[in-house]
Write a structure and sequence with these properties.
Elements: E1 4-9, E2 16-22, E3 25-29, E4 31-34, H1 46-51, E5 56-60, H2 61-66, H3 70-75, H4 79-83, E6 88-92, H5 95-100, E7 105-107, E8 112-115, E9 122-125, H6 127-137, E10 141-143, H7 155-175, E11 182-187, H8 193-204, E12 210-213, H9 222-232, E13 242-244, H10 250-258, E14 263-266, H11 268-274, E15 277-280, E16 283-286, H12 306-310, H13 313-321, H14 326-352, H15 355-368
Parallel strand pairs: 4-14, 5-6, 6-10, 10-11, 11-12, 12-13, 13-14
Antiparallel strand pairs: 1-2, 2-3, 7-8, 8-9, 15-16
Helix pairs in contact: 6-7, 7-8, 10-14, 10-15, 11-14, 13-14, 14-15
Active site: 92, 265
GO cellular component, one term: cytosol
EC number: 2.4.2.29
Length: 374
């Protein structure tokens, strides 16, 4: 049975409203997945994240395999029990670390050798061990091992990397045994349309339950990212979920959905919160700025999150300037509420057939109001 059901399709774009069935409940799409790299959404408890409306979060194979170790997590009941998360979990394969830890790893046909960023010890991840780790973790969705290519990159390198990613995907498919875990493949090929199409053709022939678009938001201009989506998405199976990895800002979510993406993840809501940036319907603001020192208003008057119902900008600025730990929780609560509410509004708009109007109003609010970002 196909675990993905399409409930509505927008008539003026590629946006869809869907439902993905997982072993830990249904996930309504389009969806934003908060990132819990090391089995925690930073500064927040699982209850808080679930209460905000999140039904799926992301963990990371590379980081969890190093600390505390997949075998230990398995002995303690699997990742869901270990971190007390009641919803679904998607685990990234570690392919992004092939990109981000480029100075301490080597790639060959069989896999990748890492030098641990924690203690310098050497570790090896192959497609087979990547799947073994994710099966031990017990995530609902596992990702095939791939190489996230940098930007810019030569066509020759992108081609060799893409072809290796396809070979690794086949090995991941052969190694995967858990029937309660969906396995998604990752489309690579850099910014080269023919390479992306060739990768899609090869991966869809293997008939994975879902497909991700990788190696975007790695430094390329925004218009390049959108051009790649215009190339890739139409060739992906209509009846399978489409996941844009590591993206992104609010406008990226809107534009991704417009082009047919169903799933997103990014550290932006919580990482930016820890740096004092909070998101509103008019744009982003930096809470540390002196203009908010005497501001009695909440971050956003219409927001219903705990932070906005309870605290002023002045108080939040005071906490941030004093480096009080509470501020990281409060700003993270607000930002995740904003992102998850944005996705709920997108789902409603697609279901009503009014996503084009939603998209227009989304940008109009940013253009008409006085900018508050600095």
């Amino acid at each position: 049975m196909n675990p993905f059901e399409i409930l509505a399709v927008d008539s003026k774009s590629r946006a869809r409203r869907g439902r993905l069935l997982t072993s830990h409940g249904p996930v309504e799409t389009p969806v934003f997945m908060p990132v819990g790299t090391q089995a925690t959404i930073k500064a927040l408890s699982p209850d808080e994240v679930h209460a905000l409306g999140a039904r799926i979060i992301l963990g990371n194979t590379y980081h969890l395999s190093l600390r505390p170790g997949a075998q230990r997590i398995a002995r303690l009941g699997g990742l869901h029990a270990f971190m007390a998360w009641p919803g679904a979990i998607l685990t990234d394969s570690g392919g992004f670390q092939v990109f981000s830890l480029a100075t301490i790893r080597t790639i060959d046909e069989d896999g990748v050798t890492f030098q641990s960023h924690i203690d310098g010890s050497r570790h090896r991840i192959t497609p087979e061990s990547c799947i073994e780790i994710q099966e031990l973790l017990g995530s609902d969705i596992a990702m095939c091992f791939d190489e996230c290519t940098p930007y810019p990159v030569t066509r020759d390198y992108a081609k060799a990397s893409m072809e290796r990613t396809v070979r690794w995907a086949r090995r991941c498919r052969n190694a995967h045994t858990r029937e309660d875990q969906l396995l998604f493949a990752i489309v690579q090929g850099g910014v080269f349309p023919d390479l992306r199409r060739a990768c899609v053709e090869a991966l869809t022939a293997m008939d994975f339950p879902g497909y991700a678009v990788g190696s975007l938001a790695v430094g390329e201009p925004k218009e390049v990212m959108l051009d790649v989506l215009e190339t890739v998405v139409p060739d992906l199976p209509h009846d399978k979920p489409r996941y844009l990895m590591g993206v992104g800002m609010p406008e990226d979510l809107v534009e991704g959905v417009w082009r047919g993406i169903d799933m997103f993840d990014c550290v932006v809501p919580t990482r930016n919160a820890r740096n004092g940036m909070v998101f509103t319907s008019r744009g982003a603001l930096q809470i540390k700025h002196s203009r908010y020192a005497d501001d009695p208003e909440p971050i956003e008057a219409a927001c219903t999150c705990y932070t906005c119902r309870t605290f002023s900008r002045a108080y939040l600025r005071h906490l941030f300037m004093a480096k009080e730990l509470l501020v990281y929780r409060l700003l993270s609560l607000h930002n995740l509420h904003y992102f998850l509410t944005l996705m709920e509004s997108i789902r409603d708009a697609v279901m009503r057939g009014s996503f084009e109007e939603f998209r227009r109003q989304f940008y109009a609010r940013r253009c008409v109001e006085e900018p508050i970002a600095d």
